[in-house]
Specification:
Layout (H helix, E strand, L loop, with lengths): L11 H14 L4 H8 L4 H8 L4 H16 L2
Helix pairs in contact: 2-3
Amino acid sequence: MAQRAGLGHWHPHELRHSGASLMLAQGTPLHVVSEILGHAGIAITKDTYGHLIVDDKRAAAEAMSGALFGG
């Protein structure tokens, strides 16, 4: 299917990983991505893709800063 779409040769696992990465980059909650991927638990998804959600930590810190110090 990937070759027919002009994307070259991709293994289904690579497409799955790319899809999960794109969902997280677009702000899809981790538990939703976990459900879509069919993982037995959210920990599997977090262990595999947790490094991609750094912006969530930054946004949380900025929200706390705003709440405490205004802004």
